[in-house]
């Protein structure tokens, strides 16, 4: 079988690379499971000081795989796993991010992208809503700016993603931008990192505890609706859905 998530280590930093180029690293049930398993290994590995989450190809993650989507509860579990991991998770983005992929960025503690990366919340255009991913995004982003992109599905660039709070930083060379970050993580003690991350994520986990069940149910209801079926069919057939004027 093809390895959907590749693992490599370098001086305490474990890099997990999403490697499903055939569907632009969209979150299929199999890819979500593979990433969850890789994160579990990182959590148990005393040699892992921090995790970098990155990708092959020109897309970090295209959102849910419409042909084989993960169960909404599984996606909630994956996002929570990133937030709860007792080690910092750093997103390294050199391509495009759409829909559910933005939830992965929101779950990460630090997110950096190259300036040619693009972002879009495309859920409204296929008849659903960014329900589950709001668990990680709403606590960490500017609500006024986010509202525009949630409601319109417009594409925006890395500079705007930094302004919203979706990204920590961006630059022409993402590895150059991340070099001092990774150096800092290597200099920090494992205990210090774990306890500091817990302070930073406490409010996010409170929102999971409060809202995860309702947002999971909302996601499942919307994805099974007639409008979503029309939206997803239109997307796969590369045409406008019936509601477009």
From TrEMBL:
A Pfam entry, by short name: ECH_1
Superkingdom of the source species: Bacteria
InterPro entries to which the protein is assigned, alphabetical: ClpP/crotonase-like_dom_sf, Enoyl-CoA_hydra/iso, Enoyl-CoA_hydra_C, Enoyl-CoA_Hydratase/Isomerase
NCBIfam families: PRK07827.1
Family, similarity comment: Belongs to the enoyl-CoA hydratase/isomerase family.
CDD domains reported for this sequence: crotonase-like (cd06558)
PANTHER family on file: ENOYL-COA HYDRATASE (PTHR42964), POLYKETIDE BIOSYNTHESIS ENOYL-COA HYDRATASE PKSH-RELATED (PTHR42964:SF1)
Identification of the protein by name: Enoyl-CoA hydratase family protein
């Amino acid at each position: 079988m093809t390895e959907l998530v590749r693992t490599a280590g370098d001086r305490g930093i474990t890099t997990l690379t999403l490697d499903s180029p055939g569907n632009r690293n969209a979150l299929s049930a199999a890819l979500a499971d593979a990433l969850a398993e890789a994160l579990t290994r990182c959590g148990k590995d005393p040699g892992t000081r921090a995790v970098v989450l990155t990708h092959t190809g020109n897309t970090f993650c295209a959102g849910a795989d419409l042909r084989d989507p993960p169960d909404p509860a599984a996606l909630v579990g994956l996002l929570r796993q990133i937030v709860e991991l007792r080690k910092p998770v750093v997103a390294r983005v050199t391509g495009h991010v759409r829909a559910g992929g933005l939830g992965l960025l929101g779950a990460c503690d630090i997110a950096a992208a190259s300036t040619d990366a693009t972002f879009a919340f495309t859920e409204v255009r296929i008849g659903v809503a960014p329900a589950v991913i709001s668990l990680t995004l709403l606590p960490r982003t500017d609500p006024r700016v986010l509202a525009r992109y949630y409601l319109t599905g417009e594409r925006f660039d890395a500079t705007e993603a930094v302004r919203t709070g979706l990204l920590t930083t961006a630059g022409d060379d993402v590895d150059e931008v991340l070099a001092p970050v990774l150096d800092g993580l290597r200099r920090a003690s494992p205990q210090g990192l774990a306890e500091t991350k817990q302070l930073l994520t406490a409010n996010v986990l409170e929102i999971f505890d409060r809202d995860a069940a309702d947002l999971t149910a909302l996601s499942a209801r919307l994805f099974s609706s007639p409008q979503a079926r029309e939206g997803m069919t239109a997307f796969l057939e590369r045409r406008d859905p019936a509601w477009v004027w």
